[in-house]
Structure formats: C-alpha cells, structure tokens
Amino acid sequence: MQRQRTFLMVKPDAVQRGLVGEIICRFEKRGFKMLALKFFTPTRALAEAHYAEHKERPFFGGLCDFLSSGPVCAMVWEGNNVISIARTMMGVTKPELSAPGTIRGDFGIDVGRNVIHGSAVPEDAVREIALWFKPEEVCEWTRTMDKHIYE
Ligand code: DAT
Ligand code: MG
C-alpha cells in the first residue's frame, strides 16, 4: 500500500442537498486524513480546467455550467491507497449503476448530478490538487490515531 493524496469534491447538487457532512464523515470514519478544504463557487474557467480531459464530449458545456453553478466543497485527503479506495467508496460514474453503500449508489440517480468528484489516478490527483489549492493551503499534520489505523 502506498501513501497517497487525492482531490475530492462535493459537487453543487450535493451541497444544495445538505450532504457535505455525510460525505466528509464517510472518509473520516474510513480512516483517511483531511489535509485541505475550501467552500466556494468555482469560476467557469476553473470548471473547464478541471474537466479539460472531457472538452470534446457533448456533455462538456453542461458539465462546466453545473460545476460552476454554486458552491462546492473542495478537499484534499491522504491515506494508503486513498485514490482507488475513495473511487470504490464513491461508486461508478453513473449513480444508477452504483452499488448501494457507495456514495453515488446511496445518493444519486442521474449521471449529471452524481454528487462527488474524486481523482481517478495518481497523475490526476497531482494535477487537480495543484489546480484547486495553493501549496500553503494544504496542511501537513500528524494525527495521533494513525497507529490505530495502520500497522
Ligand atoms: P467520474 O466523475 O466518475 O470520474 P468521468 O471523468 O468519466 O467520470 O466524467 C466526469 C463527469 O462528467 C462525471 O462525473 C459526470 C459527467 N459525465 C460523464 N459521462 C457523462 C455522460 N455520458 N453524460 C452526461 N454527463 C456525463
Ligand atoms: Mg473522471
């Protein structure tokens, strides 16, 4: 297992629905450590930069409109294999295909309102953390309970 960081974001639909606490709670309880959090409405330009890999897709415009439509909760989380474990906890891209017990499977129906973003691979995590946070906004800290989570 590798110590990693990932970028997680509660999207505007889930903020409006009051799911921020529920979602943070799941990652905290799993044993992951929060390093950064900010709550604000992203600009359209930030949304476009975030989803640049999808710029040729037909849904790109609507996706960027949606992401910049209201506040999001943008976060950095750390832990062993956090990138893939967080994706498993999130469920798959389409909530309708996501298993119950996952975040999208518990709280979503439409792909365009799928509640949460999480980095897919390590290179994406590095790029997304740098896009959303200044280095000094990412808090390095020692958590005393780590010895009860990791051998
Ligand atoms: P994920 O968010 O699971 O990494 P992705 O990177 O393939 O999924 O797509 C980014 C977002 O774009 C996704 O969360 C919701 C939206 N999206 C993806 N496929 C879509 C589609 N076929 N129609 C509408 N929106 C879509
Ligand atoms: Mg993706």
TrEMBL record:
Q: Which residues form the Nucleoside diphosphate kinase-like domain?
A: 3-140
- Catalytic residues identified in the record: 117 (pros-phosphohistidine intermediate)
The enzyme's main class, written as a single word, is: transferase
InterPro entries in the cross-refs: NDK-like_dom, NDK-like_dom_sf, Nucleoside_diP_kinase
| Cofactor(s) the record lists | Mg(2+)
Q: What is this enzyme's EC?
A: 2.7.4.6
Gene3D superfamilies assigned? Nucleoside diphosphate kinase-like domain
Q: Which GO terms describe its molecular function?
A: nucleoside diphosphate kinase activity
Q: Which domain of life is it from?
A: Eukaryota
Matching entries from Pfam families are given as:
NDK (PF00334)
**Which residues take part in binding ATP?**
11, 59, 87, 93, 104, 114
Keywords noted in UniProt: Kinase, Transferase
Q: Name one GO biological process term.
A: GTP biosynthetic process
Q: Does the keyword Transferase apply?
A: yes
Query: Could you tell me which SUPFAM superfamilies the record lists for this protein?
Result: Nucleoside diphosphate kinase, NDK
What family is this? Belongs to the NDK family.
Query: What name is this protein filed under?
Result: nucleoside-diphosphate kinase
Specify the species. Hexamita inflata
